[in-house]
Structures are given as structure tokens and as C-alpha cells.
């Protein structure tokens, strides 16, 4: 089991899937996604018990996912509830609506967060952000 999966956080399973997808990419696929997105995202996920976990998705230099803060400074920090993250990643929750309603908070480059749909689509082609 990946060290990314955290019991009590459904989002961590999706983030682990994202990592698996990144690891399965060829160098060309990884380079294409990095060129498209060019950003480091830090997700601060809060579960129902009020506990938080941080995950960093680097789509700027390495094309990888780590639990905790990554080695590269995040361009956008997104704070979201566990269930809302899952709905967002599965395309069941619209990112703009989540942001406008306060379910999703973004610090840093807000416009970069719009490119997250490219990242989620690399794992789940039906995702919409």
C-alpha cells in the first residue's frame, strides 16, 4: 500500500490513484502534462473528524505526488473537505461552484487551479473542474 493512502481520508485513495497514473506515464506523456499544467498544487484535505492531511501534486518539475508538503513550493494551495474533494475529482462537483460556495478555498494562483481538470482527467477522463 502506498504511503499516500491515509485511513479516514477517501481523498487519499484518489490521490494515490493519481500518483499511480503519473508513475505509469511515459516520459513523453509526463512532459506533455507538465507543459500543459506547469504548477505545483498543495491540497489540504479535512475529513469528517476535523483532521487534516496535506498532499502535494507536482506537475511542474517531476510529475509526482507526495503526502505532506513537497520539496517544491506550491503555486496554489487548495483547502477542501474530504467528501467534496472526492466529488470534485470524480466530476460530480463543479470546481467554480465549490469555490463560490466556500467549499473550496484557494491561496496562490487561482487561475492555475483551473488547470486541475487536466490533472484529474489524466486519471479519470470524466472529471470536470
UniProtKB/TrEMBL annotation:
Domain of life: Eukaryota
InterPro entries reported for this sequence: SCP2_sterol-bd_dom (IPR003033), SCP2_sterol-bd_dom_sf (IPR036527)
Residues in SCP2 domain copies: 18-121
Segments passing through the bilayer: none
Pfam families reported for this sequence: SCP2
Gene Ontology CC annotations of this record: cytosol
Entry protein name: SCP2 domain-containing protein
Native source organism of the sequence: Lichtheimia ornata
Taxonomic lineage: Eukaryota, Fungi, Fungi incertae sedis, Mucoromycota, Mucoromycotina
Amino acid at each position: 500500500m502506498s504511503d499516500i493512502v491515509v485511513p479516514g481520508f477517501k481523498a487519499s485513495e484518489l490521490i494515490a490513484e493519481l500518483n499511480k497514473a503519473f508513475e505509469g506515464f511515459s516520459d513523453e506523456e509526463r512532459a506533455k502534462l507538465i507543459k500543459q499544467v506547469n504548477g505545483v498544487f498543495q491540497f489540504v484535505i479535512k475529513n469528517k473528524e476535523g483532521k487534516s492531511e496535506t498532499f502535494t501534486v507536482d506537475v511542474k518539475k517531476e510529475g509526482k505526488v507526495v503526502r505532506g508538503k513537497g520539496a517544491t513550493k506550491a503555486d496554489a494551495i487548495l483547502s477542501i473537505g474530504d467528501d467534496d474533494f472526492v466529488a470534485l475529482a470524480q466530476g460530480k462537483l463543479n470546481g467554480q461552484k465549490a469555490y463560490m460556495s466556500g467549499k473550496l478555498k484557494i491561496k496562490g494562483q487561482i487561475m492555475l487551479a483551473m488547470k486541475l481538470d487536466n490533472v484529474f482527467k489524466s486519471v479519470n477522463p470524466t472529471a470536470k473542474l
